[in-house]
What we know:
By secondary structure, this protein is mainly alpha-helical. It contains three helices and no strands.
Amino acid sequence: MWLIALDLIGLALLGPGLAMQFAPDSAVALALPSTFRLPLLAVGGGLLVFSWAALAMSVIDHHRR
């Protein structure tokens, strides 16, 4: 369950970062300082990749037992 929560946190951070990158005139991008773009992309993407990798390892471990 915690992996799904971690995945949602990663998506919540990655979404505004992607909006700032690809739609710089959107409301989300204009509401946040431009210096937040790279940290949001890095942290959100990292959490997303980590949670999906941990979920895949958990499923594989569950099927081995």
